[in-house]
Design a protein that fits this description.
CATH superfamily of the largest domain: NAD(P)-binding Rossmann-like Domain
Number of strands: 8
Shape: elongated
Radius of gyration: 22 Å
Structural class: alpha/beta
Helix content: 40-55%
Order of helices and strands: HEHEHEHEHHEHEEHEHHHHHH
Number of helices: 14
Largest sheet: 8 strands, mixed
Strand order of the largest sheet: 3-2-1-4-5-6-7-8
Bound molecules: NADP nicotinamide-adenine-dinucleotide phosphate
């Protein structure tokens, strides 16, 4: 296959071809993000058994392939965007083609490790394994990425630019760290939803209407995240700065602390981390 420049800037203007196996929610978010960033729609192609999903891809302006084999034969990068449970069945029939075309595999499937991906495709495959989170669907995601030893620096840049199309993309040094990413940002949106749910319910208990409590909760979450992102200090300092001695915030924080909130959070993240490890064993 012809050598192409895979670096992130060049990818937007060169003839790098990106293929998506699975054209579901995540694939379409990635495609939408890439198109917004100026990636050439002629160079994005997807395959999926669902005619409806393929139509949605064409509506975005990108291309579709008749089947997975035709797609692999015509691209430089294959983004694996199918559910983890079907990954083995998807990859195994494609193994000879993946080996022959030496495509970069970028998997966004939760819990499937590089060893399994290589065993099902090609032991010499260049593989980037990613753990995105649900806000990626709004192009506001947080993704951890891990590259196996076969991935070149140009391929790393390209994988990063694909995931950056839907938000923040951060490389981890070891594949094990993806279990920590899963426990933190992968499952993290639900932790904030739980806190928002409880704050809203208690706002109502304190006499606010449901719409008022909801609006105030969500805007507060957004404002706090923006302040933390903009701040030059860490969140502990930020919290201290907004906590006046003897004030209302201090009363609430003391109540959290006397009920060992930090222990609850530690136990929750450890539970998610362990579940991520166990799930990977079940799926591999
Ligand atoms: N959604 C998220 O927030 C999120 C977050 C982190 C990671 N992920 C990961 O991203 C991956 C995709 O998730 P998703 O939410 O986009 O799922 P999805 O909407 O269900 O998309 C998966 C697509 O793959 C298609 N598919 C099934 N078998 C196929 C085959 N043999 N060849 C080609 N396509 C096939 C499915 O078609 P059918 O429906 O007809 O089977 C479906 O359209 C998953 O592995 C998930 O773990 C998702």
């Amino acid at each position: 296959m012809t050598q192409v420049d895979l670096s992130s800037q060049a990818a937007q203007s060169s003839n790098v071809r990106l293929g998506f196996i699975g054209a579901g929610n995540m694939a379409r978010s990635l495609i939408g993000g890439l198109l917004k960033q100026g990636f050439d729609a002629q160079h994005i192609i997807a395959s999926d058994p669902s005619a409806q999903c393929l139509q949605m891809v064409r509506d975005l302006g990108a291309q579709t392939a008749e089947n997975n084999a035709a797609l692999v034969a015509s691209v430089d990068v294959v983004v694996l965007a199918v559910k983890p449970q079907v990954m083995a069945d998807v990859l195994q029939p494609l193994a000879p083609l993946i080996s022959q075309h030496q495509v970069l595999l970028v998997s966004i499937a939760a819990g499937i490790n590089c060893a399994s991906l290589a065993a099902w495709s090609s032991l010499s495959a260049s593989i980037v394994r990613c753990m995105p989170n649900t806000p990626a669907l709004l192009q506001c995601g947080a993704t951890g990425l891990y590259a196996n030893a076969r991935v070149s620096s140009q391929q790393r840049d390209l994988a990063q630019s694909i995931l950056e199309a839907v938000g923040l993309a951060i490389w981890v040094d070891s594949e094990d760290q993806l279990d920590a990413v899963t426990a933190l940002s992968g499952s993290g949106p639900a932790y904030f939803f739980l806190l928002m749910e409880l704050m809203q319910a208690n706002g109502e208990q304190l006499g606010l209407s449901a719409p008022m409590a909801r609006a105030l909760t969500l805007q507060t979450a957004l404002g706090a995240a923006k302040m933390a992102l903009d701040a030059e200090v860490d969140t502990a300092t930020l919290r201290a700065q907004v906590t006046s001695p003897n004030g209302t915030t201090e009363a609430a924080i003391k109540s959290f602390q006397s009920n060992d909130f930090s222990k609850l959070v530690e136990q929750a993240l450890n539970a998610a981390h362990q579940r991520s490890i166990d799930l990977a064993k079940e799926l591999g």
